[in-house]
Amino acid sequence: MSSATDTVTRKSTTSGPTEPASVPSPGAPPPHARRVPVTTARVRRVVRRLPHLLVSGATRSAAIVALLLVWETAPRLGLVDRTFLPPVSEVARAWWELAADGSLADNARASLVRSFSGFGLAVAVAVPLGLLIGWYRPVADFLGPLLEVFRNTAALALLPVFVLLGIGETSKISIVVYACTWPILLNTISAVRGVDPTLLKLAKSMDLSAPRLFQKVILPSAVPVVFTGIRLAGAVSILVLVAAEMIGAKAGLGYLINASQYNFAIPQMYAGIVTISAIGVALNQFLVAVERRLGSWRLPAGS
């Protein structure tokens, strides 16, 4: 009897105190049963929204589908000369051939590097400069006449000047920087000057310092208008670069379009144009997503 008692005592001593097992509250479902309704609710929500998404997608793509149908049928019916406007199927075949031999990727890569480099430099320079000009009146008075002179000088008008810099990357990136700077700069200045005066008075009544006022009031209010300028600059960066590549370049989408025109390879020319359009749409959608991300605080909670 004593040995059995010692054994029990030894087991209780070595095992240590045991925590009581968690007992679910009466009426509460088990954890796995709790996850099932959440997943089911999400699936039901997606299923309910599916018809709306399909209708919305069909509505948005209807115009593009109609354009493609007209593009395909008009040359085949003789409504337009297919020598100068081949059917879209021939353009798609030429696009696939360019993509298969790697020439499309090489030219697109050259254009994207130039365009994004100039676009990024323009954003890095124009946004801080626009904030400074819009917020500090002495800076605006000092730089105002100079801005008025250059803002009315089109980038393409200065294209020969930039070509004098050479046919290398410097001239092309420089003209992209110049063309992209003005939409961003002017929209940033307008955004800072267009902040609600009542909001500024309210913030100043709370004894906010100038840096805190700029951080908490000016910047959030200026984001939508600034991004409007950035989106405009994104489109300009591609268009101006293509024009520059048509004059002096050995690679790029503009070079591809120009060379195809000289060689009378019309489907390849249209393939390059379609590629430029696709890149522009993708860049714009990316900037829209970034704008929504940064300006999500302005949206209602249920949107």
Summary keywords:
mainly alpha; 303 residues; disordered N terminus; 78% helix; disordered C terminus
Description:
By secondary structure, the protein is mainly α. It has helices spanning 2-15, 31-76, 88-100, 103-135, 137-151, 159-163, 169-193, 197-205, 210-247, 253-262, 266-294. α3 (88-100) packs across α11 (266-294), α4 crosses α10 (253-262) and α9 runs parallel beside α10. Mean pLDDT is 77; it is low at 1-24 and 299-303.
How are the secondary structure elements laid out?
Blueprint: H1 2-15, H2 31-76, H3 88-100, H4 103-135, H5 137-151, H6 159-163, H7 169-193, H8 197-205, H9 210-247, H10 253-262, H11 266-294
Task: Put the structure in a nutshell.
This protein is mostly helical and 303 residues long.
Gap between N and C termini = 75 Å
Q: Can you write the helix and strand succession as a string?
A: HHHHHHHHHHH
Radius of gyration: 31 Å
Number of strands: 0
Shape: flat
Structural class: mainly alpha
Continuous helix count:
11
Strand content: under 5%
Helix content: over 70%
Rounded mean pLDDT is 77
- Spans where pLDDT lies below 50 across 5 or more residues: 1-24, 299-303
What's the story with the biggest beta sheet? none
